[in-house]
Amino acid sequence: MYRLGLIGEAVEQSKSPDIHHHLLNEAGLTGQYHLFSIKPTQIEETLNQMRDGGFKGFNVTVPYKEAIIPYLDRLEDSAAVMQSVNTVNIKDGELVGYNTDGVGYVESLYRTYPNWYQHRHENTVLVLGAGGAAKGVIHALLKHQINKVIVANRTYTKAETLAQQFDGVEAISMNQVDDVKPHVDLILNTTRVGMTPNDHELVISLDRVPDHVIISDIIYQPTWTPLLKEAKERGHCLLFGESMLYYQAVKAFEIWTNES
C-alpha cells in the first residue's frame, strides 16, 4: 500500500492525484495520493505526520519548494544544485529531497519531439524567466548537452546571477529578446505570465521567430496560454505544460516505487 501526497498552498485543484493513481494502476500497485493544503507554520507537523503515518513519499509545490529544505535530512544532486525540492522520498525514516522538474521537462521534450532532441547538440534554447523553474530546466538541459541556453529576464541582474551558475548560459534582458529570436530553436516560458491573474498577457511577441522554432510553456492551468495560442496561429510546434507535469510525476513515481 503506497501512501503518497502533495504539500502546497491551495492544492485542491491539483491534477497530481489523477496522474499518480493512473501510474499506480498501470504498475499494478495499490495506493492513495492525498492533498495537503497547509500554512508555513504547519510544515514540520505535516512531515512528522507523513513519516509516522507510513507515507512512502510526497510532492511539494509552491510556495514550499525552498521552505521545506531545512526540514529534510538530505538533498540529492539536482535538488542541491537548484536549492528547490518538488519530490521527497521517505525511507527508513529519512526524508530525502529531489527535484524532478528539469528531468521531467527534458523527458517531455524527448517524447514529443525526438528528432529535435536528437539534434540537441546543435540547438539553442531561449528560456524566459530566471526563477526556480528556469534553474531546474536549465540544469537538466545542460546535463543533456544542449548546444546553448540563453536566459532572459525582466530584471537583467537576476538572469545574470542564474547564468553565472552554469557554463554555456548567456544572460540577456527582455529588451534584447528580439535580437536573439532569429537564432534559437526552442523558446520556453517559465514565468507566471499567462497564468491567472495574468492569463491574458503575452510574455513576448513571436514576430521574427522562425517557423521551425518550438514554442513551450511550463504553465498547465490554463492549458492554452496566450503564448501557445499565438504560436498555434503562426504554425509553430507546441510543447504544453501538462506534458512536463506528467513526466516530472513519472520521475517522482519511479523514485518512490523503483518502477522503471
From TrEMBL:
Origin species, per record, is: Alkalibacillus flavidus
Cite the InterPro entries for this sequence. Aminoacid_DH-like_N_sf (IPR046346), NAD(P)-bd_dom_sf (IPR036291), Shikimate_DH (IPR011342), Shikimate_DH-bd_N (IPR013708), Shikimate_DH_fam (IPR022893), Shikm_DH/Glu-tRNA_Rdtase (IPR006151)
Q: In which pathway does it act?
A: Metabolic intermediate biosynthesis; chorismate biosynthesis; chorismate from D-erythrose 4-phosphate and phosphoenolpyruvate: step 4/7
**What does it catalyze?**
shikimate + NADP(+) = 3-dehydroshikimate + NADPH + H(+)
Output the PANTHER family linked to this UniProt entry. Answer: BIFUNCTIONAL 3-DEHYDROQUINATE DEHYDRATASE_SHIKIMATE DEHYDROGENASE, CHLOROPLASTIC, SHIKIMATE DEHYDROGENASE
> What Gene3D superfamilies is this protein classified in?
Leucine Dehydrogenase, chain A, domain 1, NAD(P)-binding Rossmann-like Domain
**MF terms (GO), sorted A to Z:** shikimate 3-dehydrogenase (NADP+) activity
For this chain, the family text in UniProt reads: Belongs to the shikimate dehydrogenase family.
EC number in record: 1.1.1.25
Q: What is this protein called?
A: Shikimate dehydrogenase (NADP(+))
| HAMAP family with a match to the protein in the record | Shikimate_DH_AroE
Q: Which residues form the active site?
A: K65
Keyword NADP among UniProt keywords: yes
Q: Where does shikimate bind?
A: S14, K15, S16, T61, N86, D101, Y220, Q248
Q: What the protein does?
A: Involved in the biosynthesis of the chorismate, which leads to the biosynthesis of aromatic amino acids. Catalyzes the reversible NADPH linked reduction of 3-dehydroshikimate (DHSA) to yield shikimate (SA).
